[in-house]
Design brief:
Layout (H helix, E strand, L loop, with lengths): L1 H10 L5 H19 L4 H30 L4 H4 L5 H32 L1 H5 L9 H15 L2 H12 L1 H17 L14 H9 L24 H30 L1
Helix pairs in contact: 1-5, 2-3, 2-5, 3-5, 3-8, 3-9, 5-7, 5-11, 7-10, 7-11, 8-9, 8-11, 10-11
Length: 254
């Protein structure tokens, strides 16, 4: 598995992936600092996990999955290797990219928040601490693991643009609507937004999670939701990884 992961890194060395995982978090944080300085931190996170992060992951998976597909998988079919391990390498590479982008986002957000923006935010009722932001990024990583094998599988079956529309459409619906209900875990896209209500006290609509805010309810803040969300996210991740692996093995055997 490790060799196939390294192979994916080499294949993607000259693609747009390396730039995306750096540029996308930078753009998100800079836009928030410029457009909404008084709500810099909460808007940075809200814009990131509600839209831009999932879009970036979808593009990364599309690029990663298309390299071999463009050549009808001939570069890997001629090798005496386990096709399941090839799939594992693609998934691990996608997870690496996801982790790096989250670390960049966290670092830039903390840097901006400790600078001039910090002075403005002192009078806010809600300004997540450093420890809360670190916890939020860890939870975002865990609850977003499923997106990598899911997007890779859709890209292999449908192509880039259908995958982008299907993934982003289902994700946005789940994050905006499903995350507000008790059945938020029925679709994995609603889990991360629900977790941020608990950790950062930010509603999916970007408002502070407190009585009087639109869409607020006390159930959104229950701490037991963390355990439920993390556990179900890992189950979704295992399901999509296994399904994608089996499908890829059968595809390459034909």
């Amino acid at each position: 598995m490790g060799k196939h992961y390294l192979a994916e890194r080499l294949k993607n060395r000259h693609t747009s992936v390396g730039k995306l995982i750096l540029v996308m978090p930078l753009i998100t944080v800079c836009l928030s600092a410029w457009l909404s300085r008084e709500y810099f931190t909460i808007n940075s996170y809200n814009w990131w996990y509600m839209f831009l992060f999932s879009g970036m992951l979808a593009i990364i998976c599309s690029v990663t999955g298309s390299l071999d597909k463009k050549m009808k998988d001939r570069p890997i079919l001629v090798l005496p290797v386990d096709m399941g391990a090839v799939w594992d390498g693609k998934v691990l590479y996608g997870l690496r990219c996801m982790g790096i982008s989250l670390l960049v986002f966290l670092g830039v957000t903390l840097f901006f928040g400790a600078g001039p923006v910090w002075v403005i935010q002192q009078n806010l009722r809600i300004n997540p601490s450093v420890s809360e932001q670190i916890l939020a990024v860890v939870i975002l990583f865990v609850t977003s693991l499923w997106q990598v094998p899911f997007c890779l599988l859709l890209q292999q079956k449908l192509g880039m643009f259908p995958m982008l529309f299907l993934h982003m459409g289902s994700y946005c619906f789940s994050a905006i609507e499903l995350s507000l209900h008790a059945c938020f875990m029925l679709l994995p896209g609603g889990i991360a937004a629900r977790m941020m209500c608990i950790v950062l006290k930010i509603l999916p609509n970007g408002l502070v999670a407190e009585p009087g805010s639109l869409t607020y309810s006390p159930e959104l803040m229950e701490r037991k939701g963390l355990l439920i969300g993390i556990t179900v996210s890992l189950l979704w991740f295992a399901l999509f990884w296994f399904a994608g692996r089996r499908w890829f093995e059968r595809k390459t055997e034909k």
